[in-house]
């Protein structure tokens, strides 16, 4: 049995806009092993949410092109028809905790119903069994039966986040995409949710794709970290190496721009703003802002270089580029 | 951050955005047309003069009654007669001096497919003692000259309504019997008799006609001015109504009147609602309570019956009606919906920041609050304009409004009063209705286009 | 040298918000700030740290008189400003500045940047039009929004988050206030931009010798600014001391929890669970009896459930409200 549960090959997603074609995701290649957590780090607008939604085939109205392949458990899913994908893949094999989901809970439905809904609709379960299963999952994430029978407005932020996680787990998926699961929460609640995610991962043997802009919290879950910039994966590395020996200019500058509690270092922010995805700069897309920029960066787009064990980066630093 | 943002709140920016949508282009096109129409109306026919003209039936005697628009005849397929003022075809023949006797001969050709409705001869004469005596002869294309009648003028000004002179029917009937052998089998009117051919059927004798007017004066110095008019079935671009007034005047003037009524009402009411809503939302508590309860009471009042009731007590011109409409809509739904907007904006950080650097309440309300809630209010304003335009029309139909003002609603009212549809004068109803609907559509589309701009969720990528 | 006079003094300040469920039922109160005492000297900066519902934002805004104090006193520059009305507050408004959390909402979208910065000057009738123009240009330069000509005629939505926040800072500082309250000034900005804005704030604070109250929930950023940290929980000030002290020797269990909750980028993190108390901050309408943290506290004792702990100076200049001490 293949150890690789998710494989993304040369994925490119572009949108139609008034000003032209917007390439939100470009040539993304990723692999996720069973039971592994991959973190995708990037600033707002880098394409990480587009990538996440793309995996679930949730495209907006102005979608233009989707090129590439996505394999889940060896089976290609982009070429499946809508119905089959909806029945067999979306939410059954892979589900998602959306950014800001706690604000999207239906205020007029009880929590237990919202968690049970996918079972009733997708799997045709009867209401009683669905509710029973929902309550099981809810207690697994730390919501007692008492609170399961309440409405979302009666729950605190951390509890709502647990509900949303329960909704993603109800159909026993193998992969869960978490898009900024804790950014709206208080710091202690964040830590509690992270603890929960760690426990669930072990107990249910889940694989996570954890998307965030906060490079510090990635270390809470990630086995592998991928950095996304202007729609491309510019670096991917096992977390052991990632924080200590980053290989891409952007990663290095990012790690130096984030305040930490326990280590004292000279911080420096990254100047400038992310590039236009309609008219990106020539060569390496990060070069206008990079403090390590070299001439070749402005001319030629860097290919993926091998920087170490399973460590790849699209950066000319340290490379002989004659 | 959204790259596809509003191009600022400038008027130019909004118009540019509106033109992006097809409905926007359509709407602005029609609006420009209506505005040009209004400007044309105001410039060529000043208001006071128009009202005078519209209510002075004497001016229109030389127009046909209930004539259809010229272009309508295309649909009917026949050539319909237009108004012909025969005085331009006159030839004077001096017959004798003592008594002074002049023969006026009017020759014209008639090649239309329908009978003319009327033939009226207008006389203006200056005489010392006794009025001149007129003998009238009619010559058909085949050369037959028929003696019609002899009469003396009944005053310095006199009009002869040929089509109403019953005894002429007998004269003409006899002529036909002579020619054909039997009395006409179809109902004979004077006009039919004058223009019918000799086939025995009711068909028009096309050809050259002559009208002879033999005038005998009593005194050498008497003079006369004759204007014979052969009325047509078509007139002008819009036809005429029952008082012979060209509808084009009312259609033209309806534009500025109705549009300014609609815009005036919508604008005033929206502004008033905005002010009340802002005061209500901003100050909250007791003021909010009072204003909201007032609003609810006003909303319960039945608007149309109230206005009609008021019109029974007071004579309402269109401008007084405007005032009444504004007063009865002082508090309305706008106060509630805009208050909701105010409550949302009230809690935005920039309002708090303004308080922190010392802005007064008034300043915040007018410079920070209202400009922010204005954009969503504008589409509603624009879309409500047609409602008020129609209101004016409806009230005209109820006979509530001043009949002296030429508005589109007035035309429809006149049409119904005179049984237009029953008599088949469809154009009389269709034309003003078309203008009303055109106006309504253009404002509605404009409102929708602006709504799409202002409401980012409706925006199309 | 520094003028070290007391600029701000807060005396047992309470801010309670009234909620009326209906006209007939008695009012209930959200006790957002429940008895705070501290002093702030000129040129000094303190951080108010706490989670949501701790009352830190309410406290900061009440100090600026954007909320009305329910009881207690606020003294600014020796004057009692607790209850004075708006007209008299005008001079106070000139002396204070506010930097808000949400740059998108803090700037009025229908004004140009120039106009936004001109407003405080216009309202307080400062300078001639020419003088104002100079002040505005200088302000933009100070926050490093250059070239200035580019920015003055732009509208807020044309700027990035970081740029907007610079305008917010420029606006807060344009009248050279003595006291600035910065409420989570960077939490809505991208991680890579935060340090830049914080640097700027620090630089300007030093340059103009302003007192700064920095409100945040992110302890990692606190080190840059403040000499003092005030830890707030559920409307109370539970611990206060210098930054060094708190970060090295936290005393209150809540402070300890806050510190252990923050991850540093360390790949070992994923292999262990964080040591944090469960639960969430309490409802402020009916906060727990006694010490408000007791339901979550790992060191809870009987007395904690019944009585509110008094503030004790456990070490030099290190105050804690906890029965453990």
| CATH fold-type name of the largest domain in chain B | MetI-like fold
Please give the largest β-sheet of chain A.
Answer: 8 strands, mixed
Strand order of the largest sheet of chain B: 2-3-8-5-6
Low-pLDDT segments, ≥5 res of chain B: 1-8
Helix content of chain A: 25-40%
Class of secondary structure makeup of chain A: alpha/beta
* Integer tally of domains of chain B: 2
Radius of gyration of chain A: 20 Å
Report the CATH C-level class of the largest domain in chain B: Mainly Alpha
Supply the number of helical segments of chain B. 16
Supply the CATH architecture of the largest domain in chain B. Orthogonal Bundle
| Count of individual beta strands of chain A | 12
Oligomer: heterotrimer
Describe the protein in words.
The complex is a heterotrimer of chains A (322), B (461) and C (325). Chain A is of the alpha/beta class. Chain A has helices spanning 48-55, 82-89, 111-122, 127-140, 145-148, 157-169, 187-204, 215-221, 239-242, 249-255, 295-299; strands at residues 4-17, 20-33, 37-41, 63-72, 75-76, 94-97, 175-179, 207-212, 224-229, 232-238, 305-308, 311-313. The two termini of chain B are 15 Å apart. With 461 residues, chain B is of the alpha+beta class. Chain B is elongated, with a radius of gyration of 32 Å. Chain B has two domains: 11-54 and 245-458, MetI-like fold (Orthogonal Bundle), CATH 1.10.3720; 81-230, Jelly Rolls, CATH 2.60.120. Chain C is an alpha/beta fold and 325 residues long. Chain C has one domain: Rossmann fold. Helix content of chain C is 34%, strand content 23%. The radius of gyration of chain C is 21 Å and the shape is globular. The two termini of chain C are 37 Å apart. Classes of the chains: A alpha/beta (322), B alpha+beta (461), C alpha/beta (325). The interface between A and C is large, with 49 and 41 residues.
